[in-house]
Structure formats: C-alpha cells, structure tokens
Amino acid sequence: MRAPGLDDRLARAAALFPACAYGADIGADHGRLSCYLLENEICQRMCVADISAQSLKKARALLAQRGLSDRADIIAGDGLTVLPRPAQAIAILGMGGRTLSGILVQGKNALNGATLILSAHTDVPFVRGTLMELGYRIDKEEIAHSGGRYYVLLRAVPGEETLTERQLLLGPRLMENMPEHYRAYLSWRIALASKKRSEEGRKELSLLEEEYEYVCNRAND
User: Fold this and answer.
1) Residue 1 — very low, low, confident or very high, per pLDDT cuts 50/70/90?
2) What is the pLDDT of residues 200-209, one digit of tens each?
3) Which of 3.40.50.920, 3.40.50.150, 3.30.70.2390, 3.90.79.10 is the CATH number of 8-163?
4) Average pLDDT, the chain
5) What is the pLDDT of residue 4?
6) What are the residue ranges spanned by the domains of the chain?
C-alpha cells in the first residue's frame, strides 16, 4: 500500500525530523505527517494530538488503515499538556504565529529539550522571538510552496541565540543559506508588505526590498 502523499510543506517538515523513539504532532489534523514518520521509522512511536474531534477521527482512521494504531497515542486536547510522556521531537504546524507561540510558552515545562519543528501561517518573526526567549536557537529554516502560498519551516534546538531585528524578520538561516524558493518568497512577502500602511509595515517593506536586491545581485555574480 502506497504511503499517504505529503504536500511540499509537510514533506519538508518530515525531512526536518530527527530519528527518535517518541515524536509528537500537535495539531495533527488528518494525521498524514504522523503516518509518514511512523512508516519510515523516523519516529518509533507518535503522540497524535488535535483539539478537533473531527480531525482526530480522520487521523485515527488513516493510522488504522496503515496498521499503525498500536504505535500512536491519539489524544484530543490543546497544546503540549496532552503529551503522555516526554517527546524527543515535536511538530507544531498550520496555525498563526501568536497561537503557536502561546502553545510553546504555556507548555514550556513539557518541552524537555525536544527538537521543535514549527510552521506558522502568520507572525513568523514573533515565533523566532519566542524561541529566543525560551532558550532555543534556530538550527535550520526551509521555505515550502504549497496551495499557492509560501511557508517558512523552522527547526529549533536548545541553545542560546540573540537575533537582531533584521534576523527576526527575515530569518537567520534563510539569510545565510538562501534556500530553494527564497527569492520568490521574498517577492511574495514584498507584495504583502506593500499593502500595509503602518510605520512598522513600511520598515518591514524596506528590509525586505533590501534583502531582495541583495539576493538578486548575488544571483547575477
């Protein structure tokens, strides 16, 4: 039976997962990421959690179909308090950045040094700042293109890191490595920022345009 397909965002999230005995997918939705991680022996056991009973019903059905139910703790609940035991790697994807940051702050005692794989639809700079405050450093950043929009995926591990305002906005590892989709992602963000009328929005636009010009010049060297 063929493994369930992952879109670019979930595929990149899966690639960021370290091999571990116990992983967690908080806000698991349909459960495809958890299924992939279990079938490919990246995680030996998973906590599959979501606040939505309907989403968990889909996840439970998929895991059962794939014969993986005995390797999954399927739990209805919100945030990191649902974890039945410490996880070595935790994914939190598919929500706003302030909601995601709230989950991390409220559940900080449940992190236990886990590797974090994160993707927020909005307020990614806020997520970076939260990680810094929690004693995490960003180990890797990727850009995914799915459903006509771009997503930033972060992998964070315990460690000290002080980020500048520019790094918070643009992403320290994105700036260093300029991964696939980086120029297109900057162009997309410039289009969004140009619609903002606040002073903060104008500052964001200026930094994005500076970075875009730098990336274009590098490409032409």
Assistant:
1) very low
2) 889 999 999 9
3) 3.40.50.150
4) 94
5) 58
6) 8-163, 181-221
Residue 5's pLDDT band (boundaries 50, 70, 90)?
A: confident
CB neighbours of 142 closer than 8 A, spacing ≥ 6? 12, 15, 16, 152, 153, 179
pTM score > 0.70 for this model?
Answer: yes
Q: Using an 8 Å Cβ cutoff, are 62 and 4 in contact?
A: yes
What string of H, E and C letters represents the secondary structure of the chain? CCCCCCCHHHHHHHHHCCCEEEEEEECCCCCHHHHHHHHCCCEEEEEEEECCHHHHHHHHHHHHHCCCHHHEEEEECCHHHHCCCCCCEEEEEEECHHHHHHHHHHCHHHCCCCEEEEEECCCHHHHHHHHHHCCEEEEEEEEEEECCEEEEEEEEEECCCCCCHHHHHHCHHHHHHCCCCHHHHHHHHHHHHCCCCCHHHHHHHHHHHHHHHHHHHHHHC
- Looking at residue 27, its pLDDT comes to 93
Beta-sheet pairing, 115-120 with 149-158: antiparallel
What is the Cα Rg of the chain in Å?
18
Can you name the residues that pair with 47 across neighbouring β-strands? 24, 73
